[in-house]
Amino acid sequence: MNGVDVGTRTARQTDPAVWNTLNDEQQKRLEGLGLTPQTAPAAKEKGKGAGAFERGITALTQYAAREGRVVVPRAHIEETPHGPVRLGTWISNTRTRRNKLTDQQREQLAALGVDWATAT
C-alpha cells in the first residue's frame, strides 16, 4: 500500500491518538473492516522490562521446585504459563546487572537460594 506495510498502517490507524483524529466516516470504514481502536496497555511498575524480572522469578521458582537446584544451564528454556523464558540467559544477565536490582528483587533471588544475590 504505497510502500507502507499493511500491518504498520493498521496499527497506526487503530492507535487511539490517531483514531480520535479520524472523522466519523473514516472510523466507520475501519470498523467495517473489523478494526477498532486499541486499548491502552497496562502501565508497568517501572521502565522497560519491569515484567521480565517477574517472569524470570516465576520460571526460576518452577525450575527450582522441579530440579531441586538453582544452577541452570545457559541454554535452558523454561516453559511457563506465560510462555517460554530463556532462564539460563535471564540468570546470566540478571547476575551481570545485579547492582541495578532492587532490595526486593535481591531478596526474591536469595529466598530461592541464589548465592550471588546478597553479595555486593
SSE map:
Layout: H1 6-14, H2 16-19, H3 24-32, H4 50-67, E1 78-80, E2 83-85, H5 87-96, H6 103-112
Helix pairs in contact: 4-5, 4-6
What this model shows, in words?
The protein is mostly helical. The chain contains 6 helices and 2 strands; from the N terminus they run H-H-H-H-E-E-H-H. The chain folds into 2 domains: 1-38, no CATH class; 50-117, no CATH class. The chain has helices at 6-14, 16-19, 24-32, 50-67, 87-96, 103-112; strands at residues 78-80, 83-85. The chain has a two-stranded antiparallel ribbon with strand order 1-2. Strand 1 (78-80) and strand 2 (83-85) form a beta hairpin. It is elongated. The model is unreliable at 42-48 (pLDDT under 50).
